Amino acid sequence: MKKKDGWRQAMDAGSCQAWHRLRVICAAALSSCRGGLAALAIGLLPGGARAEFGINLQPPATIIARQIDDLHTTILWICAVILVVVFLPLVYALIRFRRSRGAQASTFHDNTPLEIVWTIIPVVILVAMAWPATETVLAMKDTSAADMTVKVTGHQWKWEYEYLARDGTPEGSEPVRFFSNLATPREQIGNQADKGEHYLLEVDNPLVVPTGKKIRVVLTAADVIHSWWVPAFGVKQDAIPGFIRDTWFKVDEPGTYRGQCAELCGVNHGYMPVVVKAVPPAEFDAWMAEQKAQRAIAKAAAAKTYTLAQLKDQGEKLYATNCAACHQPNGKGLPGAFPALDGSKVATGPVDGHLDVVLHGRPGTAMQAFGKQLSDLEIAAILTYERNAWGNRAGDVVQPAMVAARRNAGAVASAPASN
Amino acid sequence: MDAHSANPAIPGVPGHPPRDYAEEHHGAPGGLRRWLTSTNHKDIGTLYLWFSFAMFLFAGALAMLIRAELARPGIQLVDPAVFNQLTAMHGLIMIFGAIMPAFVGFANWMVPLQIGAPDMAFPRMNNWSFWLLPAAGTLLISSFFVPGGAAAAGWTMYPPLYMQGGIAYDMTILAIHILGLSSIMGAINIIVTILNMRATGMTLMKMPLFVWTWLITAYLLVAVMPVLACAITMMLTDRHFGTHFFSAAGGGDPVLFQHVFWFFGHPEVYIMILPAFGIVSTILPTFARKPLFGYTSMVYAVASIAFLSFLVWAHHMFTTGMPAAGQLFFMYTTMLIAVPTGVKVFNWVATLWRGSLTFETPMLFAIAFVCLFTIGGFSGLVLALVPVDIQLQDTYYVVAHFHYVLFSGAAMSIMAGVYYWLPKWTGHMYNEALGKTHFWLTAIAFNVTFFPMHFLGLAGMPRRIPDYALQFAEFNLIASLGAFVLGAAQLLFLYNVISCIRGGKPAGAKPWEGADTLEWTLSSPPPYHSFTTPPTVR
Ligand code: HEM
Ligand SMILES: [Cu+2]
Questions:
Q1: Is residue B269 part of a domain?
Q2: Do A200 and B468 touch (CB under 8 A)?
């Protein structure tokens, strides 16, 4: 790591005073542009929160992001210099050699030494650029000696986080694992409500990590390719179904860092943000203990029986986060792409059939196997809602115990059938 | 040489009955039959150009919808499912329906005229390769109306997402197969024509640069269209016949598709820019009244870009997580491409140096090409650096980059070429004032639309999203406003072209005094059958 800072310092030191002054002037010019633009936009945009817009990479929060930022700044300046070197003669020619000013065309059409020079100089510049870039590539790829490992799974359209065996996790105990869904209310997306400050960049359960620790991220996906991206970390890694990839980051400053899925993954690609909360290690340990305690509470809750109203109420919220993207809030689906649930045979027919679809999904379609993602209580609530919402009047209540029973029965029954 | 003396009323090539001069001028059958059955390179060139213009307007209309949706945060016009269909179809139709056929149209019209050949080598195949296009275009457009709507997995069609789609996805595969067939046939025709039918004395190194760039492009097409065909056929069999090329569950690999796709896709981006290089290298010397600087190095630069384009494909895949050695290899090769690209830009500037410049519409477009393509080259260089690319991949920065090379590169070179050769094609001058208005509106609106996208990408806005966080609102609004002007400006272009066809000041054989290629030795419009006796090139 030391060495990488070295080249950066050398760069900074090497750049002369005038260079620096130019940068300051440019920055000032840009920020006044920004003021003007913001004023323009405020006049034109609808109400609600407004966020400061950027024209450059987000402030780096990791060493890798900082190196990327430096690399980008360097190449930008190189491009700027080449641009001037090319455009000055071009602009001069366009002004000076106009026929309207009486310019006579000369007839030269070759100059071998010149052509050799302008082939070799770019090569030299490129080699100079490739060197630091190579160092950063190697640093990005070095996932060894991590302090902890988080497994990230991309789903249509949410992220699943799982803390893999870490010092202090008792042998055999289940790792902490949860889903992270978009938390922005639908009314904001549909412009019926003012948009909040973190519109589309907020989730129900952020990934929580300790600061100052090297965190290895291993990624995969359940359905299609997604890409886990946090700009401030300089991390963007595709999550590929059936394969495991890894990357790493180490955050120094506590804070909330926001990013998005960066690989087109279907209808709600724009709605699967990544939010990482970095907290000091002690706070992280407390959070982890809390997570474990909550899992015990949830287990106990699944053993109870509930009324239709209780389940339907919970189910409505869960439906909104898990199902509405495809089947739509009104249960009408999107004809041709996603079936309607309002009045559907499955959602009004026998409970077991309905359960099987939700638990095991429909292979080859966007309908996922929610059995792996949701608890018995959650599935019970969603089913109860679906069977009694809109025009559906099945009138029955699906209890967590029924889900558990079908889960086990289904596992046995579907095992041979799936081969 | 006087235009009419180039085409004297002398007997045709051996084996053909002698024709009289009148028949030379009125050789086309009338009405619809002329267009359906034509084997004449000029008619087919015209058909290609009109087809591509229609597709340009259609895909442009899709882009207007995209920008309208993106003008403000929130969902206002189209739901996310439709939005994805719009972006995918915009890309596919622009690339396969607008840019590529337009260049083939230029090749059809200009390659025989510039090498002094009477027609393309395989006129019937030429007819066939054009008439495949409307079939494919119809398939693509009609796929919007089937259940589930059009394919919505991006123009890159990555599985497994592509597997999830309905019938439209199969229609798209079929359409691309047809387009690919058409391209391959067109390319073979061009190669054979150039290699066998040049005028006496026209050695390879005396060919106009436009012909050179097309010769190389045609080889690229023949090399990579079958690769694309393989990729989408494998996808088709995965979708319907139980194979698992791209499915990990069956032992396949989704990333394999990306490798195969980009092995096609990267040469493909050069397929869309090399003929543009040719057009610009024709126009700049004409209006500088000075020979092209560094002809030989231009030819070598084009050839080495074409060669290198086979070695850089994985720079589109830096975030898939390939090994460090792979990332480094593809970074170095990608950076190398900047060298011949730079040489071309330097040569163009040197061509203008100490010329005698005038600024007719084609020249304006050609100069804008040089400036704006250079900016696209710079952003390409930025993206070539793996760590920076990982930050910028799949963001609006990439959208900005490829529009600088594809709109201000490919599309604006096509506009330059249309204005340059319209007098030759129609026999009339276009309206210069209107042309210049079209140019300035296009050039300014283009930059207003696409330059802010660099900022959006840097600040972290992903591409292919229908809605975005609030910090991206300002630049998106600016981009949308620019886009509407850009779109509307193209209607001026349409109007100018149509009125030029209908009439206008007679162009004469050679309206551009600095032009020196063979097509200007013919009358405007050229006789239906031209160069029936090959000219001789000194
Ligand atoms: C100096 C020359 C160039 C360099 C170094 C370069 C480099 C790159 C790189 C590294 C990317 C990948 C960006 C990413 O997805 O993260 C890219 C994307 C792209 N480039 Fe270039 N490029 C150059 C010129 C061109 C030209 C001439 C064209 C076409 C006429 C072109 C068309 C494209 C397109 C269409 C994409 C985006 C593909 C997609 O993801 O949909 N580039 N370029
Ligand atoms: Cu995703």
A1: yes
A2: yes
